[in-house]
Amino acid sequence: MKRRLVIPVHPPKISWLLLFLTSLRDRGEASASSVEIWLICSHHEDVIFFSNAVEFLLPDIAIRILNVESYIEAALGGGALISHVRNNVNDAVINVKKFIALHHLHKMNFNFLIVIDADSFCIGSLNTLFGEAERNYATKRIYGAGERAPERAIPIYPLILAGSASLLSQLHQNRLQLSQAATIFTWFLSPPSYQGDDLCAFFEYMEREHGDIQNFMMKLTYYTFDHVVFTQFLAATRDFELFDYTAHAILDMPESLGIAALQTLQHRFGFHPVWIRARTYLAHPLASARLFPNVAMLCHMDRN
User: Fold this and answer.
1) pTM of the predicted model as reported, rounded to 2 decimal places
2) What is the CATH number of the domain that holds 72?
3) Which pLDDT score is estimated for 32?
4) 304 falls within a domain
């Protein structure tokens, strides 16, 4: 089984990345894991910077690196999209980097791929991380917060949902509206996860809808979150369900769920927590470890 862990990076995140890689090394994951680790760099200078830093400080960590600008030039014709990335048009650079990584890796015959931020921390095995994510994915149900959640009224959430859905056809946007899936925000309850065949279907769809992949990438904005677009695609075209947990008295946003809410999802619906926000886990570390023994990673180490 081919699994890949993808981490978009830029120099201000170097300390968090090294902390994450150290957490892998300290758990023996650097050599024991069958998971490929990919760093996604914007351009040649960042490739040199991260290659040198990792080799000097953590030489036993095996990583692979993708140069986004080089890939755009070689695979997508370069030109306008490179300028788009360099100038961070529509504040879209992070989403372009993620989709470029996904586009590159979807052609490399993998089974499952997870995208994380550099400010993550490993507390278990990567094989457990992927195993739990794959179990959740196989249910074809993705959990999120609908309009009952008080924070859903904050303008950024409807902007992300609408911006992401705008990349789908009008037919599929209408389908999301009719099913109420267009109102459900799923971001970061679990690490963004992609199954190989579904990701291939996703890029084939986007190429048909937008003429080619470069046109698709040029339409990305700050509000077109990679995994929100992907889960909306799954709901509209692949029979996935976006499940509104706020109908069951869970009212926080996905990336902020506490221990009690995660237990409710686990015991009532069979959801398997894959990671937990660092501040949630570390507020009650012993309880968290006992309640969620298969949680293998903490996210948002850089946030309160």
Assistant:
1) 0.97
2) 3.90.550
3) 57
4) no
